[in-house]
Amino acid sequence: MSVYSTTPRFLAGAVCPRCEAMDRIKVYSKDDKDYRECVECGFLDELHFPGNSRELPTRVNQAKTEIDEDVVKILPINTQEN
Ligand SMILES: [Zn+2]
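Above: query sequence and zinc ion SMILES. Below: predicted holo structure tokens.
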């Protein structure tokens, strides 16, 4: 089960863990998996939201918010799955 839409969206406030560019991380779902991708350096990472292994792109600005909260804010698309 994926969290994101198959349509890529930029994740507001997210910082790339590789090149540290802000607001350059787009997130999307593919084959029921969630990915984040940096359009600056090409960084690509699979996200795992269920469970406790949280690989967050927000480590640098962790004081702001966690990614789960960002997802809720920017993705009013959950109605698709219900
Ligand atoms: Zn990057």
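Residues 67-74 form the longest helix (8 residues).
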